[in-house]
Design a protein that fits this description.
The termini are far apart. The protein has 2 domains: 79 residues, no CATH class; 189 residues, Orthogonal Bundle (Hypothetical protein af1432), CATH 1.10.3210.10. The protein contains 16 helices and no strands. 65% of the residues lie in helices and 0% in strands. It is an all-alpha fold. Helix 2 runs antiparallel to helix 6 and helix 3 packs across helix 5. Bound molecules: fe (ii) ion (2 copies). The site of one fe (ii) ion has 7 residues, from helix 12.
Length: 290
């Protein structure tokens, strides 16, 4: 009998949990009446996260004119949601360990994930999309199901990569054929378990089929950012980029229809994304303490 995706995830011993600080920061930042002091106090209790965030904020990545000395100042300057996302980024990037002998490199995984997150945020700003902060979070964790399969079901991952080699298909297609579901659904089950915002979990679930999501514009920006990042980065965790004809993709059509009135030059936008990818790589280096 084939397993459902929920059973597949439930059968994992030591399923990764989202560290408590990230959970609390999300809850505080997303509260109806968020309290900046409380959020800053919570972050400051963790000396290494505090030091890393301040280092990052004062690095060339943000190009601020003056030095930020404490978290409260950072929240005032960058906003609650930016600081929320920075904490989750720091925690996530350092939370997972590469299994010994793994053919897939976590450094590549985070380069890709942060690339997608940076592009998604950039597009959200350009499109004036209201839920930019959650879009960043969904993009950061959209492929986390791949890490779960790799770390907890390495034999499945070997079969998946073998099939990809034989059929020259994507990881998503190989997973669906072998498991009956993909890393997208695995990631959705995990992030629902972590009680991340529902919009984030839904977009993760449909990041390869954005037209099936209730909020298909949210999922379309994520899927489009994924395509753009795959096209710009050489190393993608387990997946090689196969040339995508954007015009044929539902995510492209959804974006063209939804944002047509804004007269956005998509071709030009794609060129601008290269700088964003470089910035994302710098963010990964900083977040990993490099
Ligand atoms: Fe994916
Ligand atoms: Fe991806």
């Amino acid at each position: 009998m084939t397993q459902t995706v929920s059973q597949y995830v439930a059968n994992i011993d030591n399923l990764p949990v989202l560290p408590e600080i990230a959970q609390k920061v999300i809850a505080l930042a997303d509260a109806d009446r968020p309290n900046i002091g409380e959020l800053a106090d919570l972050i400051q209790k963790d000396a290494s996260i505090t030091a890393n965030i301040l280092k990052l904020i004062n690095s060339g990545y943000y190009s601020l004119r003056r030095e930020i000395a404490d978290i409260r100042q950072a929240v005032v300057l960058l906003g609650l949601q930016q600081v929320r996302n920075l904490v989750v980024t720091m925690v996530s990037v350092n939370h997972f360990e590469e299994p010994p002998g793994s053919p897939l490199r976590l450094a590549d995984f985070w380069d890709h994930s942060l690339g997608v997150a940076t592009i998604a945020q950039c597009l959200a700003n350009r499109f004036k999309f209201a839920d930019a902060a959650n879009l960043y979070l969904a993009a950061l964790l959209h492929d986390i199901g791949k890490v779960i399969i790799q770390c907890h079901y390495p034999d499945d991952m070997s079969r998946i990569t073998d099939l990809m080699g034989q059929k020259h298909c994507s990881m998503y297609e190989a997973e669906t054929q072998i498991l009956g579901f993909s890393h997208a659904e695995v990631g959705a089950v995990l992030t629902r378990n972590w009680q991340l915002p529902p919009a984030v979990c839904e977009a993760i679930e449909f990041h390869h089929q954005c037209h099936k999501a209730d909020d298909h514009v949210f999922a379309a920006i994520l899927q489009f950012s994924d395509f753009v990042t795959k096209g710009r980065l050489q190393a993608v965790y387990g997946d090689q980029f196969t040339d995508v004809v954007f015009d044929d993709e539902p995510c492209w059509k959804i974006l063209m229809q939804t944002f047509a009135a804004q007269n956005i030059d998509f071709e030009r936008l794609l060129l601008e994304m290269d700088d964003e990818i470089e910035k994302a790589r710098e963010l990964v280096r900083q977040a990993r303490g490099g």
